[in-house]
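Example 3.2
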Amino acid sequence: MEKILAACGNNCAACPRYVAHPYEKSDEELRHTAELWMKIGYRDYLVTNDEISCMGCKPENWCRYHVVNCCEDRGIKICADCQEYPCDNMKECFQVTKSFEPKCREVCTDEEYLQLKTAFFEKEDNLRK
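Structure, written as tokens:
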């Protein structure tokens, strides 16, 4: 599977939320992802399929770290292209993302964990390459 990197280094091609062609997800798959997000603590309530599905990063999308907006302001596609990389904002992003990994190992199946690892927990490595 070819990687599709988000500005922060997430691998969209592996993401269970990413629904852009050819990565369409069924309603059942999206519901499972919403349940998984709640189980691992990404969300504190069960979100709708519309809320969990993602077509990729856009400046108007909510992002805790405003990564897409920052990249757009700087005229770059991914954080690794920035002269200030890794900035404090991205260091915090990496740290917070990694903080979910132990819970994922605890509550996810091996398959779920590997998918989330590839999609999210390798973001810093993805940006180094």
